[in-house]
Write a structure and sequence with these properties.
The chain is of the alpha/beta class and 217 residues long. It has a domain of 136 residues: 3-Layer(aba) Sandwich (Rossmann fold). Helix content is 23%, strand content 24%. Helix 3 runs parallel beside helix 4. The chain is globular and about 50 Å long. The termini are far apart. The structure holds zinc ion. The site of zinc ion has 8 residues, from loops.
């Protein structure tokens, strides 16, 4: 079983000295943990999730990937990135349903579009990690109004590893931290409408840009 992506491999030698004894390596092999990949739209979150999961699949580590059943942008049984990378995924409607769909033999649990799950995902991810699974969740950390997008922020607090992905601002090319909605809608999420959003940097982001006329009296 592999070590986390952001750590030095157990047992690796530096300057001729063994960093970790083999006992630690064995114990680590049974350990679960939680990784979160967060950021705005167009920051490559799904692509990073696919990359990490595929690496385990190449090593024949048992994996399962889940996605919220409501996200049917590209078909219901795959996670597909903007650059058309894909991996097979099981659609589930709730965090509880996800928990019960995880098989005993599964080592790596990938979850895409985590922001579309209920708050129960925080406890479910913690329970899976506690049971020795390596849980990788990708999701939006902020909604189009710049508010925390539950349950991703809570997942980040409970995670061993957090990757905050940035997009490129569609207006100026700066660091894209926010998801800007560029069509009028009061819905929290406009599904399947990539054209309805842009990535924006701190300077170019304006949460009132498109909702102003809707809310103005
Ligand atoms: Zn900008």
């Amino acid at each position: 079983m592999a070590v986390p992506p952001h750590t030095t491999g157990a047992g690796r030698t530096t300057a001729g000295r063994r960093v970790l004894p083999s006992a630690v390596m064995l114990r680590r092999a049974d350990q679960g943990w939680l990784e979160v990949i967060s950021g705005p739209m167009f920051s490559g979150k799904s692509e990073e999730l696919i990359r990490r999961v595929t690496r385990y699949q190449l090593a024949r580590v048992p994996t399962q990937i889940f996605k919220p059943a409501l996200d049917d942008r590209f078909g219901t049984t795959e996670v597909v990135s903007h650059s058309k990378l894909s991996v097979a995924a099981e659609p589930v409607e709730t965090a509880d349903q996800l928990l019960h769909a995880v098989l005993d033999r599964t080592v790596v649990v990938g979850i895409d579009e985590g922001q579309f799950f209920d708050d129960g995902l925080v406890d479910v991810a913690a329970a899976l990690a506690g049971a020795g699974k390596q849980v990788i969740v990708a999701g939006l950390d902020l909604d189009y109004r710049g508010r925390p997008f539950s349950p991703i922020p809570d997942l980040m607090l409970r995670a061993e590893y957090v990757t905050k992905a940035l997009a490129v601002c569609h207006r100026c090319g700066g660091p894209g931290l926010f998801t800007q909605r560029v069509v009028e809608s009061d819905e929290l999420v406009v599904l399947g409408a990539e054209d309805a959003y842009e990535a924006r940097c701190r300077r170019c982001y304006n949460p009132d840009e498109m909702v102003q006329s809707t809310f103005a009296v």
